[in-house]
Amino acid sequence: MLLYLPIVTIIMDGLYANLRLQVNDSIYLKNPESSDLGQRIISGSIELISEMGFESFTFKKLAKSIGSTEASVYRYFESKHKLLLYLTAWYWAWVQYRILFATANVPSAEERLMRALDVALGVHEVDIQFPHIDEQKLYHLVVAESSKAYLNKQVDEINDQGVYTSYKDLVELIGKIILEIQPEYKYPHMLVTTVIEGANHQHFFAEHLPRLTDVVCGEKGITKYYQNMVLTLIKAS
Amino acid sequence: MLLYLPIVTIIMDGLYANLRLQVNDSIYLKNPESSDLGQRIISGSIELISEMGFESFTFKKLAKSIGSTEASVYRYFESKHKLLLYLTAWYWAWVQYRILFATANVPSAEERLMRALDVALGVHEVDIQFPHIDEQKLYHLVVAESSKAYLNKQVDEINDQGVYTSYKDLVELIGKIILEIQPEYKYPHMLVTTVIEGANHQHFFAEHLPRLTDVVCGEKGITKYYQNMVLTLIKAS
DNA sequence: CAAATATAATAGCATTACTATCGCTTTTGT
DNA sequence: ACAAAAGCGATAGTAATGCTATTATATTTG
Fold first, then answer.
1. How many domains does chain A contain in total?
2. pLDDT tens across A106-117, in order?
3. What does the pLDDT look like over B55-79, one tens digit per residue?
4. Do A212 and B186 touch (CB under 8 A)?
5. Residue B63 is part of a domain; what is its CATH number?
6. For residue B1, is it within any domain?
7. Which pLDDT score, from 0 to 100, does residue B20 have?
8. Does B147 touch chain A (CB under 8 A)?
C-alpha cells in the first residue's frame, strides 16, 4: 500500500473504507475482516464453494479445510446463506469501487460507460489490496451461485435489512452514466441488470451449455457483445 | 378436445405427443403423466414449490399435501432436484408447443418473432389441455426457481442425459426466426437467452427488488421492452 | 495481572434426503 | 377368469445437514 503515490493512496483509502462499509453489517455476526480466523473463513469459503458448489458446501467442511471448528464459523455467520450474501455483496462493492476508480477524471460519458461495463461484466485480474481474496475464484462463484442470494423466500426480509444495497448502488451508478449519454432513455435499471445477469449467464453457458450461447472471440468477447448492445439500444431510443 | 376443428385437433394431437416426448424420460423413474398419483405429484409440487420455495419444499410435505407417502413419491422421482428439472423441462416444452401453434401459417418472419417472444417471455393464460397443471403458478415457479435447475455441480452430467433439450430447442427455434429476418446476425442464441432470462429476472425484481428494474406500463410491459430490444438489435447489425 | 474476549473441542438435536421392507390392492396378460 | 406383476401405503431406519449449547483453554486488553 505504501508504494502508491499520495493522491492514489488517499483515494484508495477513502474507497477502501467505504467498501468495508458497503458490506452491510447485518449480514454477519462478527466482521470477518476483523480477525485472522475471519479472513480464513472468507478465503476458505471462496475456495470451497467455487470448487464444490453451494449446495454441497457446509460449515463443517469449511471448518476442517481452514483448521477450525463448525461452532467457530457460526460465530461469524449465522448460516451458510448469510455467508453467500456476504461474498456477493463484497463482490459488487468491489466492482463498484473499481468502476469509480476506472472512470475517475474521464470526461467522456460514453468512455466512462464502456469502462464501467468492462469492469461490471466480468473477467478480472487480481487486486493486490485484498490478499485474502482470490478474485478469479470469487467471480467464478458469483457466476454460478450469486442468483441464489436473492432467489429465495426470505428475499423481502433480507432486502429490508439493506443487504442488497451494494448491488443496487452498482446498478444505479451505471444507470446514471447511461442517462448522461441519453437522458431520454426510460429503462436504465432494466438494461443494466439485463446485461450484468446476461454476462454471468453467458459465461456459465459457455462452460457448460454451449448450445445456449454463440462462439465469441477472445476472453472479453462476451463483454464486447454487451457493451455494443448497450450502446446500440440507448442510441436507438 | 373434441370441440376443436379437425385440422386443429390433428396438429394439437401431434404436438401434444411430441410435447410428452420432449420431457426427457431420464428425468423420472416412472412417468408422472401415467397415473393419478403421478399427476397429483405434479400439481401438488407446483403448488407447494411456488408457495414455499424450492429450499423449504420436501417430498414429505408434498406427500402429506397430496395424501400419499414419501416413499411413493420417490417411486416417480429420485430426488427433488429431478422433479424441478421435470417441471422446468415441461414448461419449456409447453412454451415451444405454443410458439409453434402461434406462429403456424404466419408469413411474416417479424410477426412470427414477435409472437414467439410474446409466448416465451411470460405471463400466460390457462391451457385447458392440461387440467392438472396450473400454468400461472408454474410460471411463478419458473421465474423464481428455474435457474437452480442448471446452476449446480451436476450440470454436465445432467446435460449429457439430454435433460436440457427442451430449453435448447426453444432457444434454437426462436434463434432461427431471428436468422430469417437478419441472416447476418451473429449471436442469435446469446440474444434469445439474454431476453428470456432477462424477462424472468425483471418479473422477479418487479415483485421483490424494484430498485433493480423500472416502472413499465401494463402486464405485458416487460415483454414489450424485450421485443423492442430484439428488433432494435437485429436491425442495427 | 485481572478481566474480558476469542477460539477449540465436544456433544447433542431436529430435520432432511434418502433406502429398505412388507403386505395389501389394483391392473394386466393369457 | 385367474395368476403374476405392478402400484401403493405404512413403517422403520440411516447418514448427513444445519444449527445450538457448554466448557475449557488461549489471547488480548484495561
1. 1
2. 999 999 999 999
3. 999 999 999 999 999 999 999 999 9
4. no
5. 1.10.357.10
6. no
7. 55
8. yes
